Amino acid sequence: MDLLEYQVKEWFGKIGIPVLPSQRIDHPTDLKRLKIRFPIVLKSQVHGAERAKAGGVRFAETTIDAIAAAQNIFSLPIWGELPEVVLAESQYDANQEFYLAVVLDTAVCRPVLLGCKEADIDWESAGEKMHHVVVEQEFSPFYARRLALKMGLQGALMQSVSGVLEKMYHLFVQKDLDLVEINPLAVSANGQVMALNGKVRINERAIKRHPDLAEMAAKIISRHTSTEINGILGDWDGVKMHGKIGILGNGTGSVMATLDLVANAGGNPGVCLNLRHAFLTDTTPTTFRDRLETGLKILEADKSIQVILINFLGSIPQTEEVVEVIARVVQQNNSELESQVVRSNGSKIRQVQNFTPIVVRLAGSEFDAARKSLATLKTHSDALLVVENLDEAVAAAVRLAKPTANKK
Amino acid sequence: MDLLEYQVKEWFGKIGIPVLPSQRIDHPTDLKRLKIRFPIVLKSQVHGAERAKAGGVRFAETTIDAIAAAQNIFSLPIWGELPEVVLAESQYDANQEFYLAVVLDTAVCRPVLLGCKEADIDWESAGEKMHHVVVEQEFSPFYARRLALKMGLQGALMQSVSGVLEKMYHLFVQKDLDLVEINPLAVSANGQVMALNGKVRINERAIKRHPDLAEMAAKIISRHTSTEINGILGDWDGVKMHGKIGILGNGTGSVMATLDLVANAGGNPGVCLNLRHAFLTDTTPTTFRDRLETGLKILEADKSIQVILINFLGSIPQTEEVVEVIARVVQQNNSELESQVVRSNGSKIRQVQNFTPIVVRLAGSEFDAARKSLATLKTHSDALLVVENLDEAVAAAVRLAKPTANKK
Amino acid sequence: MNLTPESKVLIQGFCEFISGTHVAQMQAYGTNLVAGVNPGCGGQELHGLPVFDLVEEVIEQFGVIDTTIICVDPYDVLDAALEAIASHISQIIIITAGVPPLDMVQLLRKAEACETLVIGPNSPGIIVPGKILLGTQPSEFYTPGVVGIVSRSSTLTYEVAYELTKAGLGQSISVSIGSDAIVGSSFLQWLQILDEDETTEAIVLVGQPGGGSEEAAARYIAEAIDKPVIAYIAGRQAPPGKSWRQTGTLATVIGRDPNFGTAQSKLAALKEAEVPVAERPSQIPELLRKEIKIN
Amino acid sequence: MNLTPESKVLIQGFCEFISGTHVAQMQAYGTNLVAGVNPGCGGQELHGLPVFDLVEEVIEQFGVIDTTIICVDPYDVLDAALEAIASHISQIIIITAGVPPLDMVQLLRKAEACETLVIGPNSPGIIVPGKILLGTQPSEFYTPGVVGIVSRSSTLTYEVAYELTKAGLGQSISVSIGSDAIVGSSFLQWLQILDEDETTEAIVLVGQPGGGSEEAAARYIAEAIDKPVIAYIAGRQAPPGKSWRQTGTLATVIGRDPNFGTAQSKLAALKEAEVPVAERPSQIPELLRKEIKIN
């Protein structure tokens, strides 16, 4: 989950990272009650990158200018997102600009401090200019000094930059972050440092143990559509592709392997969901059964999905209940189907037909009973297919996703 | 530094330890705007113990009763301290009451969790009933469960009590405490827990790194006399005895040894101050010279002090400046003395004589120059004595503190 | 690694990732499960195991515990593991998925200092077919034999075992190191164990996008592993994205390939190390037969 | 404990507890001071020492450092010590006074895990008269000889040495473990070192109110120390109080005497252990002469 700039700066201010005087503007008229001095800069609070290039950052010298600029920003979507807030901020005379970050490096299983004597670096060629320090043991300020020295800083500036890094690290740990970044950290002529812009990415798994973050996430979930949520919160529950075959599985590797098999068999994988752990959008604890229900709903609501392929192997929690969920969905589809008038035009049928065929692959002794009970269901021939072999299940799903081709 | 109950409860509330609805009352009329429901209990916010016995805790069912009770409490000093605040709190139906604490145990160099299934225990016989767990490594909640189980708790109550201990520990570390105590922790009939009263002692050395605590300490220092401050903040800079010989030294052990020598030689030690590190009441960083100046002022202002014994050995920071400070004080005394009319009645002379003789013991090569320069000062015979041998210095101080006896 | 059937095993917590069936399966397999720890449930019995509130109570009653299987809720994993380490348990298998990564960082610092072996989180554990089952791997897909499996996946691990068993290729040891970005034991450690294991004659490595462990494994195989290794990487067709926990651009600045974390980078590394790669799970037996002569 | 004059020594920080005179004194004594570390001052020279920003820079230039003397501000002590430990320095002497005790708790946990010897805080360090000076003990009060001194005080330690020197009794090693409530090395460790030290023939133990180290030392002397020990306890006449950092009533509940922390408790323990106790520093030589035959 990424925070917006004004939220990042609130956090920075609280933990003691120097930020400019600024004010949150919810409506252009708020600028009449501006508490900071002109000239100011107005910045669109959106998640997308390159907002300055898109016109989301404007300077103003007077209240009238500022209101006009704010109206403009409020009505300008950036990467499809309209800002709910605009940040009004003082301006700053920077002599130098640095890049600083703390990031969780999963390859070394440790947080890493990053620093560069240039801001807005080109990542392709950052290698030589960017310095890093791995925080091997419990953090202590000397790690921050190590980085500041590697960056080539000395004396008072080395001390103040390492002081900022120290606070960034504390924020990182306190709030379970994946990333905290200051870009740029401005240095004034007299050596004072100032965080002009910042980025914070919260690790999705930890959100629920921080009441303040859980509340932020809940707000985002209630305000946005599921696609936007994935963009803002991250989408670690699955992969969003644009094909016709939706995949539900139990485990990342298993979902991925199924996806590959579908693609290799000539099918187009669509949304693929891993049901092994709670979805990011779940605000309360969920069971496997809950997640299966949610997953089926997501796939059924997705207009591009023509077939649902479920791949369960070994064991899942609540096997019996899970089978019931599948059975219920299939029977509901069936009854709806029977009440429909079947027309001769295949494509028309697909439009009215509001059910999606399900291929269920179940393997393992725990599923013996399940296979049998699903097999006894009276359904339309394509509505439910239960198989044990994965390659077969994939072939069936691919076949079902091409009804017109089959009918020719 | 000990916090008052209402401050403790604010902290408890913030960290998630359950406390009753309560309201801070700064003036009896605040009770007209009471936001909690009657019946309430009104509690005097003072540092002294046994306030209930002294009449500092009263119950009230109506606003009129409450105002009368508050007026009463506001005008009732407890151990010499008038409350600035009264706490109004809801009442609670307790089924059981426990004692819980986290304390820094200097003997094992670790924090220790303490718990007992009785509240308000008699410390003399607490041994068998009190349980403890040493927090050997970094704290983790299992230490809290260990204690709750040792206390004989089970199931949900074991869980909720260990949850409270966990939060107490986090507070302990976050705020650099010597002690955090809940006494009593009430358990209701349905197993809900509630901190009815709490105590927090902050380690004096850490105050300056917590801006909120430094502010609290500054308030106490500005409002109270030095004796009260010692009572409230703790008096780790020295010992307050009531004799005639004030002692200034560099190091706890050295000050103690000097005190013992004075007592063994028949003298009465008075206030003894260790100048080795900053005083608790210093709100800004100090030098050794600053502390010597402060120390001399404290001793000179103390009417019972008749002689000041300074014991410096080896080396002190800023030797030359320190010698200047002593010289200045002595010369000032000298000039004041010369302008006085010496009367025949010895006791009368002591009343007008507003200087205190100083015995300075200096040993070590660094003091060679200092001894010489102090020896050249022209003073009244008793005003300054510079010696190298400690036993001699002590004998001289004891002699000077008994002018009448000597004159007989 | 102590994988003898006599070694004493504890279960901490009984969250959704472990069920009565799993416990029964472990017991049926002969795993020496002595007790469960579930704070607040001390004195009860669960799945036939006596349950305690604290690990130290179990040790008091049963003596030294060799392995603990942690299945508490994700936010309680760090505490449970620290409790196990404080009780000198030297092998920890974490089944639970969804553990916050900074908790794992803290745990790994401690485990390294105390020389504790941590497997997982988000791992179904270890099986030595016919001998011992530590975790939730479904034993019905396994049969004793000579192929070692080391995997980062959960379900996909048994998928591979199932293919081997169907093809008549038994397994020596199968371990999942866990599919999270930050896990305890590494591919390298397990490749070494399997290389030294006398029963194992060939190794199957199962990988997926994210991180750099497959690349490290490929280099290690080329340098140090004498036994034949076959690899399978899931997710070649998946779009790259942060969804699979790549560190992304930031990773490149610390001397890494911009492709870091992708299936393509892993496949390239395996090719470089001349490790045969299966296209799909069902192709693994065929590739194995080319490398070793079994049956 | 490495106390040879060849061992390489570093100074971290130059706060008020150390002065140019102390540094010059150490150098004059032949202590192998190689550098100072003072963040923000790298490249400068202080008291004739090259100054660096980081400990690792010193090690890069001079190789392994044996001992560091920490004199940074109280709130920076933990960081400086952790930096030294991360650079594998195995002996740390903390001169600084006023370190918050919970910082020491954290440091000691780490030092114990890494087997680092921590002396202090609030300690003037160690002197081996005529050989090496590590800290701020004024060397003029010392003369080489056979009496070992172990103390919790700072100034009082040299007071005792001064009395010995005046009485013609030289010293083998003198160490102050630090007068804070929570310190690294203990009386017990130093009693053992002095007992094993070949030069030392008798030991003087200097204590003060607070904590239970003198009591523990008394028991240890009775059990394990063969050489004669004389004790001196300051503060017998001081009123008991929290001023001297007693844990007070709370201490009693964990199986301790209600007298815990008082000079009286210490004197009683020493009497029980039959350790002769001097009334005042100047009495120590006399008691020593009764126990050993020197001069």
UniProtKB/TrEMBL annotation, chains C, D:
Residue ranges crossing the lipid bilayer per the database entry: none
What processes in GO biological process is this protein linked to? tricarboxylic acid cycle
* EC identifiers of the protein: 6.2.1.5
Read off the SMART domains from this record: CoA_binding
Q: Which SUPFAM superfamilies match?
A: NAD(P)-binding Rossmann-fold domains, Succinyl-CoA synthetase domains
UniProt GO MF annotations: nucleotide binding; succinate-CoA ligase (ADP-forming) activity; succinate-CoA ligase (GDP-forming) activity
Q: Which UniProt keywords apply?
A: Ligase, Nucleotide-binding
Q: Does the keyword Lipid biosynthesis apply?
A: no
Pfam families recorded: CoA_binding, Ligase_CoA
List, for all copies, the residue spans of the domain called CoA-binding: 2-99
Query: Under which main EC class is this enzyme filed?
Result: ligase
Q: What does UniProt give as GO cellular component?
A: succinate-CoA ligase complex (ADP-forming)
Q: Which InterPro entries match?
A: CoA-bd, CoA_lig_alpha, NAD(P)-bd_dom_sf, SUCC_ACL_C, Succinyl-CoA_synth-like
Keyword Ligase belongs to the record:
yes
Q: Which PANTHER family match?
A: SUCCINATE--COA LIGASE [ADP_GDP-FORMING] SUBUNIT ALPHA, MITOCHONDRIAL (PTHR11117:SF2), SUCCINYL-COA LIGASE SUBUNIT ALPHA (PTHR11117)
The name this protein carries in UniProt is CoA-binding domain protein
Native source species:
Nostoc punctiforme (strain ATCC 29133 / PCC 73102)
